[in-house]
Amino acid sequence: MTHVCVVSLSFQLQQGIGRPSVYHAVVVIFLEFFSWGLLTTPMLTVLHETFPQHTFLMNGLIQGVKGLLSFMSAPLIGALSDVWGRRSFLLVTVFFTCAPIPLMRLSPWWYFAMISMSGAFSVTFSVIFAYVADVTDERERSTAYGLVSATFAASLVTSPAIGAYLSAWYGDNLVVLVATLIALADICFILLAVPESLPDKMRLSSWGTPISWEQADPFASLRKVGQDSTVLLICITVFLSYLPEAGQYSSFFLYLRQVINFSSTTLAVFIGVVGILSIVAQTLFLTLLMRTLGTKNTVLLGLGFQILQLAWYGFGSEPWMMWAAGAVAAMSSITFPAVSALVSQSADPDKQGVVQGMITGIRGLCNGLGPALYGFIFFLFNVDDFWKKNSKPRALIPGPPFLLGACTVVIAFLVALFIPEKTSCSSSSSQLSLNDKPHPDSKESMSSLAGVHINTPLPGSDEESPPAACDADFEPLLHDSIV
After folding, report:
1. pTM, full prediction
2. What's the pLDDT at 285?
3. Residue 257 and which of 198, 242, 295, 473 are 20 to 30 A apart at CA?
């Protein structure tokens, strides 16, 4: 009897509960990001207490190392998941990504060291998108990605406010404990409930197949950037606009807390409000703008909002300015879904995977470079020391990195003006001179192009390319943050 129970439990651990579905992926994503979102306020406090002299610089280095490691490891983990299955890599990525959480109160130094090193495994979205691709057909995939995106956004809209409330009433220790328990629940859910999505036949046929360097090379897609002038312009636009955005994600909450003096409650409310506005902008306004202005003009409008937002952050020194700029930031979130549509119009259907892979690679690289760049600029301008010594400072530029970011987006705007817009889904002029033969719906292409993910309160993610090049039916790149 005991032997039967053990065999039954082993079979359940191997098979999970029910058939593999999008809802399994949704639960995994929600629990992981919810646990990290709870730590938004305590993490800022611990960061300042651990590195009181160079808070912004150390924050930039920590997030920069994590981002670069994620960029380097994402293609390899995606390729390995094609051989060993998605479920095992979901377990590995979630476990190592959440491993630093209990160390926050035990040893802050080890906590931040582990956050940096965990970047090598912080690519949950790469595996999640491959999982979703396994369990959906082409027609259902856009809806499935939308559900994952909405779940990701919902977890980050709600969890910082809950974490701030628990911290104010019960202390940071309870917040860390709750976050640790939720992370453990996520790991147990993967062990007990998540079934393998990759068919047994595919796994058995791929066992023993060597992983080529091209599959694991994070720079492989970037080498093809210059082979088409239109794609080159789009990639330059993405790099110049996303580099400051990645830096902003890594440091903006710390900036609001340390420089603008937002309280924990105000910061949590700010995240929630701007997050909800971003969701509205990427659903209602994006659809309306795409239909009325066209794809290219929507990209230009999003870049314009981003310039205004970053300039406002750079020159603003009062809380109301941050709230106003936050509303503008919500509107600037339409840029990258519109870029995805523009890419789909500029490439042949059989070249979508290659081009979207370039965009994914560039954004992943920015996730490593952006935080380090912002941290260095904060350090270069002595922002920490200046605001500590002056209770009511009169700096001409309170936030130098944001102003520099606005300048790079201005250049991105000028580059985007030269991008030719394709208005027809079947235009014969959108021929790419790329020699590769990717298959966007294949398991290899899905896992390697799925994206780079940074599991912090401001994480990152990307998605598979759209199957068609029509601006009325595209799959937007999942935005890296709701704020």
Report:
1. 0.76
2. 87
3. 242
Asked if the structure places residue 460 within a domain, the reply is no
Average pLDDT over residues 6-30: 71
Residue 5 makes CB contacts below 8 A (sequence gap 6+) with none
Please tell me the distance from the alpha carbon of residue 180 to that of residue 39, in angstroms, as a whole number.
10
Distance CA(454)–CA(370), nearest Å, equals 13
Range of the domain at 46: 2-199+213-425+437-449
Is the pLDDT reported for residue 428 higher than 50? no
The CATH number covering residue 379 comes to 1.20.1250.20
CA 183 → CA 35, 39, 161, 381, distances in Å? 6, 12, 18, 38
d(CA 359, CA 321): 32
Q: Regarding predicted confidence, which is higher, 339 or 435?
A: 339
Distance of alpha carbon 345 from alpha carbon 410, whole angstroms: 24
Report the alpha-carbon distance of residue 130 to residue 417 in Å, rounded: 34
Range 289-298 contact pairs with CB under 8 angstroms and sequence separation of 24 or more: 289/334, 289/338, 290/338, 290/341, 290/471, 294/421, 294/423, 294/471, 295/338, 295/341, 295/342, 295/345, 295/421, 295/471, 296/342, 296/416, 296/419, 296/421, 298/334, 298/338, 298/341
Q: What is the mean pLDDT of the chain?
A: 78
Q: How large is the angle between the packed helices 124-135 and 22-38, nearest 10 degrees?
A: 160
Spatial contact of 242 and 368, defined as CB atoms under 8 Å apart: no
Inside any domain, residue 476: no
Residue 31 to residues 55, 151, 235, 437: CA-CA distances in angstroms? 29, 10, 33, 37
pLDDT in tens, 239-262: 999 999 999 988 899 899 888 889
Tens of pLDDT, residues 191-209: 999 998 877 655 544 445 5
Query: Is 471 among the domain residues?
Result: no
In total, how many domains does the chain have? 1
Tell me what pLDDT residue 476 has: 37
Query: Would 124 be classed as within a structural domain?
Result: yes
C-alpha to C-alpha distance for 236 and 394, rounded to whole angstroms = 36
Place of tokens 């809802």: 23
